[in-house]
Amino acid sequence: MDPLIIDQVAKSFAQTVAVRDVSFRVGQGEIFALLGPNGAGKTTTIRMALDIFRPDRGTIALFGKSPGAQARDRVGYLPEERGLYRNLNLLDCLVYLAGLKGLSAPESHRRLAGWLERFDLANHTAKKVGDLSRGMQQKAQFIAALVHEPDLLIVDEPFAALDPVNTRLIKDVLYELAAQGKTVIMSTHQMHLVEELAERLVMISRGEVVLYGTVNEVRRQFAANAVLVEGHGRLERLPGVTAVEPQGENGTLQLRLEDGATPQEVFRALAAQPAYAVERFAVALPTLDEIFVQVAGGGRVREVGR
Amino acid sequence: MTRLLWIARHEYVRHARRRGFLLATFGLPLLVIGGVALLILVLANTLRPEAAIGYVDQSGILDGVTIPAAAAGENSFVPLRPFPDEAAARAALDAGAVDAFAVIPADYEATGALAVYGPERLSSDGRTTLRAALDRGMLARSGASAEVAARALDPLGEVAARTPAGATIDPQLPIGRGAVAILGSLIFVVTVFSSASYLLQALVEEKENRTMEIVTTSVAPAALIGGKTLGLGLLGLTIALVWAVSAGVAWAVAGAFIAPVRAVPLPWSALLPAVLLLPLGYLVFAGLMVAISAVVSSAQEGQQFAGVASLLAFLPLMLSGVLLAEPDGPIATVLSLFPLSAPVAMQLRLATGAVPPWQFVLSVGLLAAAAGLAVWGAARVFRTGMLRYGKRLSVRETLRAFGAR
User: Fold this and answer.
1) How many angstroms separate the CA atoms of A117 and A91, rounded?
2) Among A227, A272, B43, B66, which one has the highest count of C-beta atoms within 10 angstroms of its own C-beta?
3) Domain final residue, candidates A173, A202, A219
4) Per the domain annotation, does A288 fall within a domain?
5) Domains of chain B with CATH codes
6) A231 within domain boundaries
7) Contact A101/B397, CB-based, under 8 Å?
8) Contact B210/A88, CB-based, under 8 Å?
9) How far apart are CA B311 and CA B343, in angstroms?
10) Handedness of CA A273, A274, A276, A281 (dihedral sign)
11) Which of A52, A66, A92, A108 to mutate to test the interface with B (most CBs of B within 10 A)?
12) A103 in helix, strand or coil?
């Protein structure tokens, strides 16, 4: 059973349409990316999934039922708007939040000890939250989201304010959770991390789904008819290639192909050229960053299937 | 239920540890007890009765006069010591045998002129003793019978205070009733306003520091509001209890040293209706504060809205003069039926006058209905406005929230 199914959901606030028509499913044990430009409706969609708001139209199934009390303890949430009790010390704050998820105080202490140690916060438990650095607060809030071992973890910009070491730490935890069969929904603008972590994605723009599918499928869908080539020697004219464009400083060339020409044909022609030695040959796939800019700007709708 | 209690415990402990709370809870009582102690100290030092007062009676008016011992609880008489002349009295004063002496001239009966040597002013007991001696002396000279003399010395000694219906009452009772009514009202006001104010602060704070989103994805809004309402209600009750106990201690201590205070009986049973009025009144204000917290965008704005509601609850205390003087009048009746002012107004009326049972029942009924409506409406408005960061909910949105699912 998919932990989260969102079907034709819409939500408006006064005169503002926040979510027009959004549908997607998130499978168990996957890391799923929820993307979109600012104000696209991502946070509203998450809040509806968490029963903070109720949709005006459409249905949401969280663990097979409408979002509500029965699912609260199975979900962990790191909201985009970070917030902790600044006047409490770190440990008291985390124990309280864990208690809200149903953990007893002794159990919270036991579990938190391990997480605080792992996130290098064990020596800061007596400090007031307000006195911690932004990165430390971010890590503390991440711990608060997963200390009760949720089946579904929703993280909004989980890598904001983190250095590369802590980014790696969070990534490792997300991988571990997915490996344990837990589901992770990640909303971020750091597209390289989506490419690295997520298996599937949905992109919302102006309250509607504009991209939906696996990361590789989406990239392939947006691939220009071009290949990337690295090598050395003199490159002669190739049949089926309309333009040769240098890419960056490392000698990589992008070969734009005629309509109807395939990468395989170009590769064969390239291999037949004695004056040029091929070291790397790849179909030119756009980065998610490029796709994001293109789609968010143009509102192009693509659904690539699950 | 467990989450509700967890939240209640958290809110109680978190606020009880704050310096502001400790200052508000213990600061004022300490100030009051300190003030009473200071007053007693000042009274003890400045108004201490003389050990003995001497007199030189040139008029012969005090011949054969004896001063009886004072009854318990009343001012005690100071021993009077006669001296044959002014020089002997002055010598006794210098030697410390007396603290003052009076010279009663021969023409005292005609002129009333009298000289007292010693302190600037005799103590209350000293003056009473000298007055009693002279009263007795002059009555003896007038030849009045023993009965007439006794009546003249204490003409109001046998007054019986009665109600218009004829029932006997303790003349000090209205004072005690007024004191209890004011104390009961103050306890209500302190409990409700400190709790409601903490509730407003806690909810707006969670909106401002963005913890609301985590909290509302962990517990149902009803448990969140219920937990906070319970925890902070108990916090207000703690303040009220500390203040009430302090007031009781201050009253007992003052009574031990100051006779008029001791004479006033306190009808504590008049506070019993508060057991019903206090929680209902608190629920009304808690509901209002929850709704205000959802509507406003900052704590400052919240306090302004809360101020208007508080004013209505304070109104009976501000008009306590009218209410105590005319507990069955139209102003008192209306205020004791209107839910926001009812808890205080009804307590003032119950302590000072006889409230018709139907009015009490109607008042409690209206208060209960208002409490139910406030809690129901607050939950709806809260759900709509809880995540509205930095933006106030419009009147239209607020009204629409009442109809939301």
Assistant:
1) 12
2) A227
3) A219
4) no
5) 53-153 (3.40.190.10), 171-402 (no CATH)
6) yes
7) no
8) no
9) 13
10) positive
11) A52
12) coil
- Considering the domain architecture, whether residues A141 and A273 belong to the same structural domain is answered as no
Closest Cα to residue A22, out of A184, A207, A167?
A207
Residue at which a domain ends, from A171, A200, A219: A219
- Number of folded domains that form chain A: 2
**Interface probe, candidates B204, B212, B214, B380, chain A, greatest A C-beta count within 10 A:** B214
- Does ipTM top 0.85? no
One digit per residue, the tens of pLDDT, for chain B of length 405 reads 688 999 999 999 988 888 888 888 888 888 878 887 787 777 766 667 788 899 999 988 888 777 665 544 455 678 888 999 999 999 999 998 998 999 999 999 889 888 999 877 788 788 888 888 888 888 888 888 878 888 888 887 777 777 676 766 666 666 777 777 777 787 778 778 888 888 888 888 887 777 888 888 888 888 888 898 889 889 888 888 888 888 888 778 777 776 666 666 666 777 777 778 888 888 888 888 888 888 887 777 888 888 887 787 788 888 877 877 787 888 889 988 999 888 888 888 887 767 888 999 999 999 999 988 888 888 888 877 776 666 777 777 777 766 665
Shared domain for A192 and A246, answered yes or no, is no
Residues of chain A contacting residue B211, judged by C-beta atoms under 8 Å apart: 83-85
Residues 6+ apart with CB under 8 A from A115: A143, A146, A147
User: Is A304 part of any domain?
Assistant: no
Region of A236 on the Ramachandran plot (φ > 0 left; ψ -120 to 50 alpha; else beta): beta
Taking CB atoms and an 8 Å limit, are B218 and A85 in contact across chains? Answer: no
Give the Cα separation of B96 and B51 in Å (integer).
9
| B3, B210, B216 ranked by CB distance to A52: nearest | B216
Put simply, the answer to whether A86 touches B215 (Cβ < 8 Å) is: no
Query: Cβ contact (<8 Å) for B219 and A83?
Result: no
B289 and B203 Cβ atoms separated by less than 8 Å: yes
Task: Give the domain extent around A82.
Answer: 4-219
Residues 372-401 of B with CB under 8 A from A: 387, 389, 394, 396-397
Contacts for B318 with CB less than 8 Å, ≥ 6 apart: none
Chain B closest CA to A100's CA: distance in Å? Answer: 6
Q: Are residues A53 and A24 in the same domain?
A: yes
Q: How far is A99 from chain B (nearest CA, A)?
A: 7
Q: Is A289 part of a structural domain of the chain? A: no
| A144 contact B CB<8A | yes
Cβ-Cβ pairs closer than 8 A, A with B, add up to: 64
A229 lies in the same domain as A203: no
CATH number, domain of A102, equals 3.40.50.300
Are both A144 and A128 inside the same structural domain? yes
Q: Do residue A59 and residue A124 come from a single domain?
A: yes
In this structure, the answer to whether residues A67 and A143 fall within a common structural domain is: yes
Give the chain A residue whose CA is nearest to the CA of B2.
A102
Q: Which of A261, A259, A263, A266 is nearest to A238 (CA)?
A: A266
Q: Which residues of A touch B209 (CB under 8 A)?
A: 83-86
Which one of B2, B15, B217 would you mutate to disrupt binding with A, by most A Cβ within 10 Å of its Cβ? Answer: B217
A83 in B contact zone (CB under 8 Å):
yes
- Give the Cα separation of B176 and B190 in Å (integer): 21
Whether residue A107 is found in the same domain as residue A191: yes
Structure-block tokens of residue B210: 């963005």
